[in-house]
Amino acid sequence: LRLQGLPTLLGGQSGFISIQFADQKQEFNKRPSKIGRRSLSRSISQSSTDSYSSAASYTDSSDDETSPRDKQQKNSKGSSDFCIKNIKQADFGRREIEIAEQEMPALMALRKRAQGEKPLAGAKVVGCTHITAQTAVLMETLSALGAQCRWAACNIYSTQNEVAAALAEGGFSVFAWKGESEDDFWWCIDRCVNVEGWQPNMILDDGGDLTHWIYKKYPNMFKKIKGIVEESVTGVHRLYQLSKAGKLCVPAMNVNDSVTKQKFDNLYCCRESILDGLKRTTDVMFGGKQVVVCGYGEVGKGCCAALKAMGSIVYVTEIDPICALQACMDGFRLVKLSEVIRQVDIVITCTGNKNVVVREYLDRMKNGCIVCNMGHSNTEIDVASLRTPELTWERVRSQVDHVIWPDGKRIVLLAEVRHPLILSSVTTLTLLSPQALALIELYNAPEGRYKQDVYLLPKKMDEYVASLHLPTFDAHLTELTEEQAKYLGLNKNGPFKPNYYR
Fold it and tell me: Which of 158, 235, 294, 502 could form a disulfide with 208 if both were Cys (CB 3.0 to 4.6 A apart)?
């Protein structure tokens, strides 16, 4: 499939379908209230703050605990339109990005095929995602396709400082560092959005915080914004709520429910990253451990498969009878959390919900129980209930805390349950390609093709993303004959699945 401007990829047809809304009760703004720029849980040494995704060791004795907001830094070209931990780490970050490029064949192929056409020329993309080597490949691809980008982090712990430095050195306006406070988090988003002489016309979001901030502080910006691309369950739910309330001002693309996101990022990547994240933070052995995984969606399936393969005894909690039956057929015991909370060694949440593990369950956990979250935000586990005078918090290492009860019992809390994927070097290979395609489609769509609603990525694009990865595996697709295609009622070039297929 040759790229001749992705808006024509579907033969002039949008191919997108509008999604029905589920009845959502949670409010759009679920961010915790602001706290000080430094909290006790984040007042840790530089040596433990900067953790890199490669095995290499890198330190800079000149760096200290001074907030990046209080520093004056410039890149080699004299630009200071960024705020990061340490610009001196740029060379190290560049090597990280080069390694990531080898594992992201779809984006690299897209960059090679489309950069001559510049399908994003004139696009001004403001983004709020994890800032990792993989996201850097996406940002540099968008830039190669003609876009201008300004970026903040969607998670206060996930930024790879060396990668942020490499991006800043490369001329990107990046506002992020690992270990931001809540106040820093919103300040960084505001710096991306509120800049003189530059206004975004596209939003790329992970979790909905950027979209929420613009709605709250700069609603007039939506007059020039052509669309929103959202990749997370949380962010998509927020978009549905806006649309249902009649407050969605622009078309939005739901990348979260694309097949290449659900299967590859949620299932296959989480299958690897859950083990990597737990090993990096706790050095735990999995064999014989009793683990309860809350939620058996694609993320839960990946976690359960990995833990079962390592010899763990895995329990599953579910509210959906279909997912529950899948768990049973896959050999997992379906339980209520209250039935196993006293005996399990590890609790993993991946429901996308709130108050899944409340204080009552935390009180009943055994000594040494590890608690972590694979969802986007920290709403699944009631961490706020642990901030009480009778409990003691001890920082063990970066993103690992012991919470100690008066009787001496302690639980191990990872990243304050803000998504252990951020601790891992194993990240998505396919998700970022649908993001790029969705941006191109929304940006170039003729007026009237998309209304102020939420749309799914069409299967034609999903299949295209998958096809870009196949050469990496030396994989060879079988082609339908004309007779076979006619028999199946398909175009021999696809799409091979209906739009509702997930």
Answer: 235
